[in-house]
Backbone:
C-alpha cells in the first residue's frame, strides 16, 4: 500500500495502521475545509476574490456526497436482498431498478427527479439539493446493490449450512452469519463507489445546485478566465478524491479479504 499507510511503523498491526490512516485522512479533510477559503484568498485574481465561494461550493459537494452516499448504501442493501429474494416480484422489481438506473445517464436521472417527479407525484416539493441527493443516492444504490450481492454470494455455503445445523433460522443465519461476512467483502468496492460519487456530484449543477463545479462555471462566465478557474476547481476535486482514496485503501488493507497484503 502507498500513501498515508506507508507513514506508519511497519511494526504496527494492519488494523492499527489502517485506523491511523483513516483518522489522519479525516483530520486532513477537516483541516482542508477549515483552511480552504483562507488558502485560496492568498491566490491572485480571479481566485482570491472568489475564495469564499469556492469554499462554500466545496462544502456543498461534500454534503451531497455524504447524504447521497449513506442513502445509496441503504438502497443498495435493500436492492441486493430483494434481488436474491425467493419472491419473484421482489426479484423482478430489484432487477428492473438496477437495469434501468445503470443503463441511463445520471444527468437524465437528476433532471427527471427535479423536473418530472413532482408532476408524477402531486404535492411533492423537492429543493434542488434534495433532488440531486435523491437522484445520486438512487444511482449509486444500483451499483452498491451489485457489490453487496456479489459479496453475499461470495460467502461459502458451508457457513450457511453450519449455521442452520446449529438451529438458526434462515433470517438469523442471514443477519448474523452471511450478511456481516458479505458486507466485509463488499466494503472496498462500496467505498470506491463513494469516491466516484464525489465526482458525480458535479452533475448537480444542471439543476442549479451551487456545488464546486457550478461555482467554477459561474466564475468562468463572469470573468472569461477559464484556465485559472478550471485548474483550481480540478485541484480541489483532486485533493478531495485523494483523501477519500486513502480511506478506501485503508479499509481494503484492514479487511484484506483476499490476504494479498503482508502479514502482521
Residues:
Amino acid at each position: 500500500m502507498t500513501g498515508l499507510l506507508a507513514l506508519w511503523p511497519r511494526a504496527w498491526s494492519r488494523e492499527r495502521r489502517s485506523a491511523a490512516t483513516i483518522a489522519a485522512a479525516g483530520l486532513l479533510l477537516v483541516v482542508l475545509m477549515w483552511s480552504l477559503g483562507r488558502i485560496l484568498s492568498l491566490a491572485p485574481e480571479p481566485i482570491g476574490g472568489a475564495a469564499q465561494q469556492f469554499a462554500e461550493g466545496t462544502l456543498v459537494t461534500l454534503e451531497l456526497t455524504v447524504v447521497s452516499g449513506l442513502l445509496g448504501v441503504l438502497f443498495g442493501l435493500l436492492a441486493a436482498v430483494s434481488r436474491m429474494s425467493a419472491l419473484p416480484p421482489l426479484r423482478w422489481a430489484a432487477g428492473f431498478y438496477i437495469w434501468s438506473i445503470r443503463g441511463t445517464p445520471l444527468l437524465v436521472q437528476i433532471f427527471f427527479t427535479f423536473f418530472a417527479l413532482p408532476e408524477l407525484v402531486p404535492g411533492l416539493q423537492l429543493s434542488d439539493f434534495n433532488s440531486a441527493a435523491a437522484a445520486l443516492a438512487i444511482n449509486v444504490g444500483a451499483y452498491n446493490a451489485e457489490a453487496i450481492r456479489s459479496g453475499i454470494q461470495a460467502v461459502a455455503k458451508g457457513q450457511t449450512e453450519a449455521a442452520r445445523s446449529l438451529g438458526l433460522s434462515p433470517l438469523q443465519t442471514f443477519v448474523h452469519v452471511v450478511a456481516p461476512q458479505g458486507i466485509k467483502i463488499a466494503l472496498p468496492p462500496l467505498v470506491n463507489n463513494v469516491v466516484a460519487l464525489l465526482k458525480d456530484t458535479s452533475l448537480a449543477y444542471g439543476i442549479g445546485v451551487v456545488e464546486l463545479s457550478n461555482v467554477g462555471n459561474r466564475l468562468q462566465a463572469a470573468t472569461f478566465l477559464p484556465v485559472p478557474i478550471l485548474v483550481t476547481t480540478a485541484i480541489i476535486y483532486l485533493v478531495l478524491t485523494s483523501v477519500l482514496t486513502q480511506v478506501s485503501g485503508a479499509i481494503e488493507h484492514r479487511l484484506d479479504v483476499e490476504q494479498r497484503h503482508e502479514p502482521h
User: Anything to note?
Assistant: The CA atoms of residues 150 and 186 lie 7 Å apart.
